[in-house]
Amino acid sequence: MSEPARAYVTLDDLLKLRHRATGFSFLPRQPVHSLLAGRHASRVRGRGLDFEELRPYVEGDDTRAIDWPATARFGRAHVRIYNEERDRSVLLLVDQRLSMFFGSRHAMKSVAAAEAAALAAWRITSLGDRAGAIIFSESDIVEVRPRARETAVRQIAGALARQNQALRIGADKAAEPDLLNDALRRATRLATHDWLICLITDAFGANETTVELVTRMTSHNDVLTIFIHDPLEASLPDIGNVVMADAASQIEVDTSAHGLRARFATDFIARRDRIETFSRDRAIPILPISTEHDVVDQLRQLLGRRLARARGAGHGG
Predict the structure, then answer these.
(1) Start-end of CATH 3.40.50.410 domains in the chain
(2) Cβ distance 269 to 201 under 8 Å?
(3) pLDDT tens across 169-211, in order?
(4) How far is CA 18 from CA 79, 89, 108, 125, 158, in A?
(5) CATH of segment(s) 11-37+88-311
């Protein structure tokens, strides 16, 4: 029998992920297998550029960097050289609503989302960028302004742990689908220009307003979606009468009823298709993270450097 899904995550758990936040990157130069490669690469701008110098063209320079007015003035080709800015603001929108307090395998969706956010924050700050967060639940919406280094991660991790541990079955609250859009509205006010916005959610409550808000953000920023899901959502097994719980109640259901299983699957497919459609239409990368497997392993598979490892294995063999 498999172990029950982990229901909660602690601050210590999230801080320990620092040493596992390797082997993946949110930067635009990705391995060819990565979901951020190809058509998505142009949608992830990376750091901004500061002008450094104007110098004569040498063989191997990018011809797109040629400064034609300077070339005409000096009588020979010149190129403009830029340096990357030292940091970029990354905003993590992390879903800790009651709909996330569900899981059948390795961890609850809420735990997977918190771990994904912490791993992203550790990786982002290790590269010199600034990380901030908007963590939303039925209890509160917490805003953490972007900061650099370990200070930022500790603040984000602390807010994540508090929101996560506040989730309870039977809580005197109902799931609120509109909170997703409330968080996105906050993000549009905070993220002004050339930010990377990472939405970590199960897409509960996503609607036309969600599409409008995300579209508005993509006009001046990059958006990346981490779609958190549980295997049971896609395929409810036929195991007879079982007690199922959401955050507000517990009920006994007959999983042998074909109609029930069909409705369960249809709801999940609708949410998945909705987020995939607006992600595809706007060239927004979408990373599916399942509660069935370790989050670090999944991020490394989706954003990591398997190509480099495969080449290394080939040379070793």
Answers:
(1) 11-37+88-311
(2) no
(3) 665 666 788 899 999 999 999 998 889 999 999 988 888 899 8
(4) 40, 19, 21, 10, 14
(5) 3.40.50.410
